[in-house]
Specification:
about 0% strand; 3 helices; mainly alpha
Length: about 80
Amino acid sequence: MAAIFSIFLAVASAVVTHWSVRNFQGTTRLGLFAFSMALLGLSFVWGNALGGFWPGVYTLISIYFLTTVATPWLHLYWERRDVE
């Protein structure tokens, strides 16, 4: 259960990162980005369930980056789907 929770926190961190960078400015953007990094840090704490600290960190960083790369494409797909 802790492994699933840590993966969920990493994905939530990536989504909040994309949301903060795309939709906000100034201190709100900074605050949301700090919140997303706090979520990523919490996922590292729970990441020990993924086989130890370092294997958990490497897995969660990979999930974070893959989700961060995928969210703009999903957003573009959803915008184009709504237009047609």
